[in-house]
Each structure stands twice: as structure tokens, then as C-alpha cells.
Amino acid sequence: MDFIDYYKILGVDKGANPQAIKNAYRKLARKFHPDLNPNDKEAKQKFQQINEANEVLSDPEKRKKYDQYGKDWKHADEFESANRQQQSAYSRGSQNSEQQFDGDFSDFFSSMFGGAPGQGRSRQMKFRGDDFTAELQLNLMDAYTTQKQTLTVNGKQIRITIPAGIENGQTIKISGHGGPGTNGGPAGDLYISFSIANHPRFKRVGNDLFTTVDVNMFTAVLGGELTIETLSGKVKLTVKPETQNGTKVKLKGKGFPVYKHEGQYGDLLVTYNIKIPTGLTDKQKELLKELSLTEFKNQADA
Fold first, then answer.
1. Which stretches does DSSP call E strand in the chain?
2. What is the rounded CA–CA span in Å between residue 195 and residue 138?
3. Which of 34, 132, 219, 246 sits most deeply, having the most CB atoms within 10 A of its CB?
4. Residue 221, CB half-sphere, CA atoms under 13 Å: how many?
5. What predicted TM-score, i.e. pTM, was given to this entire model?
């Protein structure tokens, strides 16, 4: 297998920290995502390479093995285990033991697959397949309800159920849908991370939602009813007389569904934004002046 420079694929230095790797992956994944490059085989291949590089370099253990063993990093555990066993046998003076490996793990891998001369019968060891990573983009309404989606991964269609309340950045594992194993070994797993876009009216914090609604000055002063939108439909609010700008009200159970807890929801927190009227008639302006004078007199008498 040829060496693949994962650092070069992501465009980062070998000493890059985890955040730099994460930022580089997200930027490239958006650029080469199949949804943005339909029927572009080169972009699809590039996207797979980017995911593979991120899957290795974002995992401290895998990155350490990759840095040490290069193209053979996937078999590092087998090499180290076999080396320890032979060192132990050699130290006990076993006559049947072969000479211990001196660190040339490429020779070890060649003998394991029958590629090195003079090694006798090859050892066909089973290896687990690679894990795959993918990013799925949703909007807030998508994440609000449980839904089913079909993904195409490595030429195979996978139908998954996405529970309501999935978090932005959350990752779920689909067992057995990664790369195929070697010599009959088990397949790897598929890890799907979710990117949830911002909503124009609602901000999500955990299971709670936040929104700002306009209230006209007359309703704020005199009180009244207000109809607002929520993710589950319209609701009516009672605005108390003399409501001040920035007043907050909480609507319990009108927030976001709690992940994998059916029937449980966060709250919706509404902030009132008092709107000053425009385009007033002369009569309306006169009435406001009278109201202003009355308010000024009451403050002076207080």
C-alpha cells in the first residue's frame, strides 16, 4: 500500500493542534461535499480522502500510530504484540523461537502476508476494516422531528433514523458500515456528525429556544393579546399592561425536544421588543403629547 500523507491532504503541518485539524477538515469537507459537487468523481474521491485523513489525525491514538508507522499504522498493534511475544520467547531461551523483530515492521508485515522470502508458511491474520466518517447537514426544523434518511456510503445505501433533538456537532455510530475487513475480519463502523444550521428566528441553547418578538407601543402600554410563531405552531400570549421593553416570558414545553426522551421538551424564552409607532396622525400625536404632560405632572407630584 502506498503512503498517503494525511497532513498534506488537510493542508496542515505535522505539528498542527486538534483545533487546526478540525478547522481544516470542516473547510475542505464543505468545499468537496458530494451534495455541492454532483456527478463530480474527483470531488467525491477528494471528499473520501479528507474524511479518512480527519478520522486518523483527529484521534490521538491513531495519529500517534500513523506518525510512528506511516503506511503500516493500521497494523501497529499486531506488530507490537508479535514483537513483545518474540522478545519474551527469546529472553526465555526458547529454541523454537525465531530472532526477535529489530524494529523493521515492514518486514514483519511482509511476512505476515506471505510476501517475504524464506519465511515459510504465511500467517493470514484478520484485520478490522477502517472506520468511515461523514457529515450530515440539517436545518433546525429537520432536527426538531424524528426522521429517516438514506445515505450513500462507499457505493452502498444506508437508511438511518435520526432521533428528534439531535445536537449540532453530535456524532452517532452506525456499526458495521465502515470499510471491509481484511482476510475475513469485521467491517469498520460509520461515524456521522451532524451540522445544524442557524434559524432566522430561533436560537437554540441545549433544549431551550430563544426568540425576540415585536410588540407595538399601544399593546405594551394598555395590554392585550399577541400571536407568535413556535416550532410546533402558533400560540397566543397575554401582554400585561405597562410591559417594558426587554421583558422576558417563558413558555414551558415549547422549546426543543430532548434527545431520545419522547414527549420531553425544553422551554421557549420570548423577549419583547417594544416598537415605536411611525406615521402618526396629528390627532394621535396630540393625544401622546397630553399623555406625556400627564406623566410629567405625575412624576413632579411624586
1. 132-138, 147-153, 156-162, 171-174, 190-196, 203-205, 208-216, 224-230, 233-239, 248-251, 268-275
2. 6
3. 132
4. 10
5. 0.58
